[in-house]
Amino acid sequence: MKRFLTGGILIAALAVSACTNPDRFGSDGLDANANAGANANGGIIPGSVNDPTSTAFFQQSVGDRVLFEVDQSTLTAAGRATLDGQAAWLTTNTDYQAVIEGHADEQGTRQYNLALGARRANAAQEYLVSKGVPASRLRVVSYGKERPIEICSNEACYAKNRRAVTVLAGGLSS
Amino acid sequence: MKHLILSICLSLGLFLNAQAQAQEPLRIIIDEAIIEPLPFAAPSFQPESAAAGQMASDLARVVAADLTGTGLFREIPSSAFISTVSDFNAPVQYADWKAINAQALITGAVDVQGNNLNVKFRLYDVFSGAEMGSGLQFSGTVDGWRRMAHKVSDAVYARITGEGPYFDSRVVYVSETGPKDDRKKRLAIMDYDGANVQYLTDSGSIVLAPRFSPTGDRVLYTGYESGFPRIYVLDIGSVSRRVLESAEGTMSFAPRFSPSGQTVVFSLSQGGNTDIYSMDVNSGQSTRLTNTPAIETAPSYSPDGSRIVFESDRSGTQQLYIMPAGGGEAQRISFGEGRYGTPVWSPRGDLVAFTKQNKGRFHIGVMRLDGSQERLLTASFLDEGPTWAPNGRVIMFARETQGAGGSSTLYSVDISGRNLRPVNTPSGGSDPSWSPLQK
Predict the structure, then answer these.
(1) Which of residues 112-151 of A touch B (CB under 8 A)?
(2) Edge-to-edge strand order for the sheet containing B331-332?
(3) Which of A49, B217, B250, B402 lies most in the core, judged by the most C-beta atoms within 10 Å?
(4) Looking at CA atoms only, how far is residue A2 from chain B in angstroms?
(5) What CA–CA distance (Å, rounded) separates B30 from B163?
(6) How far apart are CA A33 and CA A47, in angstroms?
(7) Residues 6+ apart with CB under 8 A from A69
(8) DSSP of B3-32, one letter per residue?
């Protein structure tokens, strides 16, 4: 239990959470969604999306992922804004380490996509480091096209699969 | 197949040729435009012991399936037979086989004693009325009966086509089950025709792109067991594996053995940049072979081990390059439209197979070492990852279908582009690697 929030922030956090889609391959925080919300006396359930130190809050309110253009690993303006938020959060919540997962859509050969995912994960990592997150807290991994979250074969799905996802480890339990 | 010659074996042919018109032996020239497959008959083999009955029939079926599977042969069904073969050593009634247009006749005999299996066969050129080559005999175990059949098929195929054999070989691949967003992958090994599937890993973590050692006893692959892509070497006999050395904070993938089996060439990603390295398998000592900010991956040795073909996007898009095996200046070889990846040097040394992406379609193709004579063999939503049959005549690859229900299936195709067909595996498959011919 780290801190309490006012009701106003609570509502804002819930509103954001409804719009986001946690990465099903992220290892933390998925169970927390089911418990989202405050307890009976207005406190924050630790680890819930309303706990600003939680993985669930990071995933849903800060935003755990950035998206890329076709065959690109250059960060977009939206991506940089998300990473600014991640950097601020990681700078505050120093208990956490993170693995940045780079992914590609299915349009490409397997090995090339592994290398492309590595470029994307690295682009996100370098940006976070440039914003003051110690490199020692960050690792990168590429999944290439092995872990799509959307399964249709058109740009609507591909756009969501071309991503770098910051997956937290540590925090409350560590 | 315009050279389907009704003729005499060279061994017998000299004096007969003197009285007949000039003739050529029974032969399929694969490089020529093939109009019609060569008709053959493969009656049930002769059991030479009581225990051999079923196997005698099964062996002939596998031989027939091997040959017809090439697209170069057509089996004449036993219902059309005029005469039967009841004695492996009795003279062949050529007229009866000629009458049903069986240009080749394959006969065999099978003996089973305990777990020992002995298979003999003969190949006849029906229209010239002579045996083609001499009879051969293979011995093995009852469990390995399909290999005996493949050896018979290999001998028939090699004699008639003049090409090297390839049926007695295996394929290691990634078995796939489940939907695209929850795909389970495990390493599997099978006979070239999809029989005798055996799983080498469980599906607990991602496995990718297995590659046979030059002697077929080990497999390199990329695995995520540690949470990060690393290269493993797996001993097929004992199904034991070990991870190859890799530095903390790096990812390694796309491994392939050198022809000597002593060196592994692979890709290593560090700081977002992917280059090609080689490593001595025993010492773990590695050498950097490329050093550019581009993506360099999918390396494959020439059969003599002196050069490496690989893909790089140093020009801006994925293209194919050849460099000396120790690194150094690379020559670009692909100049067509689109992007080229996953090059694999042919076992004959004359061609490179590749995956090509162009205008939203994927192709498997082959080109000469200087990039000339590019030939696309397939086209689909997503074809990738070619591997060569040991004789360099056939390519296997994976085809992924489109959409939410998409799945991956292994296919084979002749390097002429003919005879595209799925490989019969129990579930989906990707990343095939064809073994050398078994010893």
Answers:
(1) 112, 114-116, 118-119, 121-123, 125-126, 139-143, 146-151
(2) B296-301, B307-312, B319-324, B331-332
(3) A49
(4) 30
(5) 9
(6) 9
(7) A76, A162
(8) T------HHHHHHHHHHS-----S---TTS
Residues B172/B210, Cβ–Cβ less than 8 Å: yes
State the residue for tokens 């777990």. B115
CA distance A39 to B353: 63
Q: Residues of chain B with pLDDT > 70: what percent?
A: 93
- Residue identified by tokens 């997150």 is A133
Domains of chain B listed by start with CATH number: 2-161 (3.40.50.10070), 170-434 (2.120.10.30)
pLDDT at position B165 over 60? yes
Classify B140 in phi/psi space as left (phi over 0), alpha (psi -120 to 50) or beta.
Answer: beta
Q: pLDDT tens across B196-254, in order?
A: 999 999 999 999 999 999 999 999 999 999 999 999 999 999 999 999 988 889 999 99
Q: What is the pTM of this model?
A: 0.89
Report the distance separating Cα A171 and Cα A5, nearest Å: 18
Single-letter residue type at A158? Y
B313 vs A contacts (CB less than 8 Å): 112
**What is the separation of C-alpha B263 from the centre of its chain, rounded to a whole number of angstroms?**
23
Residues of B in contact with A116 (CB under 8 A): 295
Asked whether B23 and B54 are in contact (CB, 8 A), the reply is no
User: Do B300 and B309 meet the contact criterion of CB atoms below 8 Å apart?
Assistant: yes
